[in-house]
Design brief:
Blueprint: H1 2-26, E1 30-31, E2 77-78, E3 82-84, E4 88-97, E5 100-109, E6 115-119, E7 125-126, E8 130-131, H2 132-138, E9 143-146, E10 158-160, E11 163-166, E12 174-178, E13 183-186, H3 193-198, E14 201-206, E15 210-213, E16 216-217, E17 234-241, E18 244-250, H4 262-271, E19 276-280, E20 288-290, E21 293-294, E22 309-310, E23 312-316
Length: about 325
């Protein structure tokens, strides 16, 4: 009898502990103080091409002046698929790749300071979450995609807008966006947050894996995020060159869109010109917002189109 009672009590205790772990991981919010103040990132302005001067005329030669045209002013603001101002240019396209609707944002900015991140409710912590569109609206984002959902993990370096929030490492690939506008995929276990901050890391994400490095695909057809299916909604960020970036979001898990594998996503990013590319959180988290409108069809299970609440976004603004 006593043995049976202890078995029942042990079972109840184990169940309670399992429920607590699940709640702590996915439900219970907990704000945390950042690990350090902002670093000393120094931004560089991307150089624009200088016009080639016309050759000097030969002495005594007759010179016929070339007709001059007044260039059309660059439109400032939004159209349905574009945005332009003196520092930012964005062009959106949608196409079908691998039986999946894919949304591509081609971005050109004059400085990496316009490639920003934001935390849900402006709070760093565990399970502090909101929809990508809500976080984007709170920060007047021109364009936004979901980030790496740092709040679902206890480890992995987190640096956002130059501020170090978490120093604890794990073995996932890191993506570093440096203050000069370049991107680099680094080993998440050997990298140190303080070192990255001192070297001018502007943003550091920990999800991965890296998809493209030095113009070469770095995943295989068998690569996959842990506990994930082969074809999923995906979010990726990439760089063609400093100042020229790509945000890509795919649909998935629906009759219209199967979703992409990591290898398919990597091949797509390379075909778009990315020399560096990185996989961000996907599945139901994958969302792209432009001018306040969710332009993809985010879904967790394929039955309902709705945004998942996430801990952070990447945005242009």
């Amino acid at each position: 009898m006593k043995r049976h009672l202890w078995t029942v009590l042990y079972g109840l205790a184990l169940t309670a502990f399992t429920v607590y772990l699940a709640l702590d991981t996915f439900v219970l919010s907990r704000a945390v103080e950042p690990a350090a103040e902002m670093n000393t990132a120094v931004f560089e302005t991307v150089a624009t091409p200088t016009p080639t001067p016309s050759p000097e005329p030969t002495p005594g030669a007759t010179v016929t002046p070339e007709p001059t045209e007044t260039p059309d002013p660059v439109p400032v603001g939004f159209t349905e698929n574009t945005y332009r101002d003196e520092n930012i240019r964005i062009e959106l396209t949608e196409r079908v790749e691998y039986g999946t609707h894919v949304y591509i944002a081609d971005i050109r900015i004059s400085s990496a300071e316009y490639l920003k991140t934001a935390l849900a409710k402006d709070t760093y912590g565990r399970n502090v979450a909101d929809k990508t569109s809500a976080i984007a609206a709170a920060h007047d984002a021109i364009l936004a995609v979901n980030g790496d959902y740092y709040g679902a993990r206890e480890a992995g370096i987190v640096i956002r807008n130059g501020r170090v929030y978490r120093k604890k490492v794990n073995r996932q690939d890191l993506l570093v966006i440096w203050a000069d506008g370049t991107m680099e995929v680094l080993d998440g276990y050997t990298s140190k947050a303080d070192d990255l901050a001192q070297r001018g890391a502007w943003q550091v994400f920990c999800f991965g894996p890296g998809l493209v490095s030095d113009g070469e695909v770095t995943v295989t057809a068998k690569s996959e995020v842990r506990n994930s299916m082969a074809s999923n909604p995906r979010t990726a960020i990439g760089m063609a060159e400093s100042g020229h970036y790509l945000f890509v979001v795919s649909d998935g898990r629906t009759a219209e869109s199967e979703g992409l594998s990591l290898y398919e996503l990597a091949e797509l990013m390379r075909s778009l010109g990315a020399v560096t590319a990185y996989n961000l959180d996907g599945g139901g988290s994958s969302a792209m917002v432009f001018n306040g409108r969710v332009i993809n069809k985010p879904t967790s299970y394929g039955k309902t189109v709705s945004e998942r609440r996430v801990s952070d976004i990447v945005y242009i603004g």
